[in-house]
Amino acid sequence: MSTNNNHLNHSLILIVLLLIAFATKSEQSKQIPALYVFGDSLVDSGNNHYLPGEYSQNFFPYGIDFGTPTGRCTNGKTVADFLAIYLGLPFAPAYLGLSRSKRNRIVTTGINYASAGSGILPDTSNNKRISDPIYYLFLN
Fold it and tell me: Sorted alphabetically, which Gene3D superfamilies does this protein's record hold (predicted)?
């Protein structure tokens, strides 16, 4: 029962956030300069492709909609990609896929720090925590 309530709560939060985004899109889309993505496999645009371990999606059918494997945990666009399209922004590239000089230039247009298998709690996964991308951000 608790699991069902958690799923319901998460679904309601997502619906409310999407409704707010849709309601304010016309006024704010011109004011949103970039998309910074933090999360797990639902929004990972390929960071795990550059990490050692078991969470790699660098083979078909992953990325088949792009014509090549992208490191995403999907065959095409992620939720963050659809949000970028909706807001009229470019896709936020995977942070670990960018050179240091490119990271410094592209930081104003958005970056994707998400990593499949990540979680907020240290014991969520042996792979990555959501705090790790924040650490990467300050490496520059």
Answer: SGNH hydrolase
Structural domain that includes position 14: 1-31
Tell me the two tokens of residue 39. 């999360």
Task: Say how many domains are in the chain.
Answer: 2
Q: What share of the chain is helix, strand, coil (3-state, %, to 5)?
A: 45, 5, 55
More confident residue, 80 or 3: 80
Q: Which of 83, 87, 91 is nearest to 66 (CA)?
A: 91
pTM of the model: 0.66
Q: Residue 80 in contact with residue 61, Cβ under 8 Å?
A: no
Q: Do 89 and 132 have their domain in common?
A: yes
Shared domain check, 13 and 38: no
Q: Which residues pair with 112 in a beta bridge?
A: 37, 94
CA distance 46 to 31: 27
Of the pLDDT bands very low, low, confident and very high (cuts 50, 70, 90), residue 93 is: very high
